TrEMBL record:
Catalyzes the conversion of O-succinyl-L-serine into cysteine, the last step in the cysteine biosynthesis pathway. Can also use O-acetyl-L-serine. It holds the Pfam family PALP. Keywords: Amino-acid biosynthesis, Mitochondrion, Pyridoxal phosphate, Transferase, Transit peptide. Gene3D superfamilies: 3.40.50.1100. It comes from the Eukaryota. One of its GO terms (cellular component) is mitochondrion. Pathway: Amino-acid biosynthesis; L-cysteine biosynthesis; L-cysteine from L-serine: step 2/2. It comes from Owenia fusiformis (Polychaete worm). It catalyses: O-succinyl-L-serine + hydrogen sulfide = L-cysteine + succinate. It is found in: Mitochondrion. The keyword Transit peptide applies. SUPFAM superfamilies: Tryptophan synthase beta subunit-like PLP-dependent enzymes. This is Cysteine synthase 1.
């Protein structure tokens, strides 16, 4: 009798656990519920080639299609908590596009207006998507951060000039990094059961790398945190020799590469940096598409290149985690255009057997 009772209770307990699990996982609460808990995917070809586990967070599975949805959610939630953003208010941001897209989605869900300043050399698809989302998009000529006309400073000035508006300031507002300390890092730790030897990410604001790195180092100080830097960015030299000197060349990757150390990157526990060439980033973006089936942008190809290089340095049997940052649809007219690649001298970087698919 006593035995039956125990069995009954344990079954009930199991049913409760299952229900709780289902309500957390199966039913997401509105758009905010679609930010985070992205799948961690084993990239089979890249893993087999290196003898390591090459795992990638499928960040395109966030509701707005990129890793930046996480920062967007935290930036808005912090502005609400601080009382800077009141009902019906306006969110203003300077962005290469993906943070703006995340913000625009969240603004639709929460009833805020959204004004986006972005450099006019970013992809037309991101600008078009922002317009469809109802954001007021203001493409401006690209110029350095030190120039008062830089898109970030224009966003700050505009927000200060209107009532009930907030400049979310993704580069220097550490609510961005916190999103990755509280969400992305713990997700990686849980999904790998703590078996992670290295993480590697390209850096725009630095939120992803600094946030994930901070959380994982707290769990295990031996996790290697590796910055993946595109051509023409200063961060590779900064990590290697403390100098803010640009590497040679320039990159077609959008959303990553930096000219300074942002507040989000400041103090991040970074062990090493890799300078990744566009030729490798492009090759691996196409290999990811045609050999693994994932259609992503060039920052993802750069991340995967860095993950493979890190795996080779560590040797077989290790686990390296990176991220698939956004969807390839954002770059049809550039990265996936034969003419564009040819104009940048990158057509040869696409493996020959895949070039016929370009037009
Ligand atoms: N990849 C893409 C496509 C991005 O838009 C960004 C952010 N601009 C990143 C990577 C880098 O993310 P983070 O800002 O967290 O460094």
């Amino acid at each position: 009798m006593a035995f039956r009772k125990v069995q009954y209770f344990s079954k009930t307990f199991a049913a409760c656990e299952l229900k709780r699990c289902l309500s957390q996982e199966a039913i997401r609460n509105g758009f905010a519920g679609m930010v985070g808990r992205t799948p961690l995917v084993r990239l089979n070809k890249f893993s087999a080639e290196t003898g390591c586990e090459i795992l990638a967070k499928a960040e395109f599975a966030n509701g707005g299609g990129s890793v930046k949805d996480r920062a967007a959610l935290y930036l808005i939630q912090q502005a609400q908590k601080d009382g800077q953003l009141k009902p019906g208010g306006t969110v203003v941001e300077g962005t290469a596009g993906n943070t703006g897209i995340g913000l625009a989605h969240i603004c639709r869900a929460l009833g805020y207006k959204c004004v986006i300043y972005m450099p006019n050399n970013q992809s037309q698809e991101k600008i078009d998507l922002l317009k469809v989302l109802g954001a007021d998009v203001r493409p401006v000529p690209p110029c350095p951060f030190t120039d008062p006309n830089n898109y970030n400073h224009q966003a700050a000035r505009f927000a200060a000039s209107i009532e009930n508006a907030v400049w979310t300031n993704q580069f220097d507002n550490t609510a961005n990094r916190l999103a990755h300390i509280e969400m992305t890092g713990p997700e990686i730790w849980q999904d790998t059961n703590g078996k992670v030897d290295a993480v590697t990410f390209g850096t725009g604001t630095g939120g992803t790398l600094a946030g994930v790195g901070t959380y994982l180092k707290e769990k295990n100080k031996n996790v290697q945190v590796v910055l993946a830097d595109p051509e023409g960015s200063v961060l590779y030299n900064f990590i290697k020799n403390g100098k803010l000197e640009r590497t040679d060349g320039s990159s077609i990757t959008e959303g990553i590469g930096q000219g300074r150390v942002t507040k989000n990157l400041e103090g991040a526990p970074i062990d090493d940096a890799l300078a990744i060439r566009d030729t490798d980033a492009v090759e691996n973006t196409f290999r990811l598409l045609y050999e693994e089936g994932f259609f992503c942008g060039a920052s993802t190809g750069l991340n995967i290149t860095a993950a493979v290089q890190t795996a080779r340095l560590l040797g077989p049997g290790h686990t390296v985690v990176t991220c698939m940052c956004d969807v390839g649809q954002r770059y049809y007219a550039k990265l996936f255009s034969k003419d564009f690649l040819e104009s940048k001298g990158l057509l040869e970087a696409v493996p020959e057997q895949y070039r016929a698919n370009l037009h």
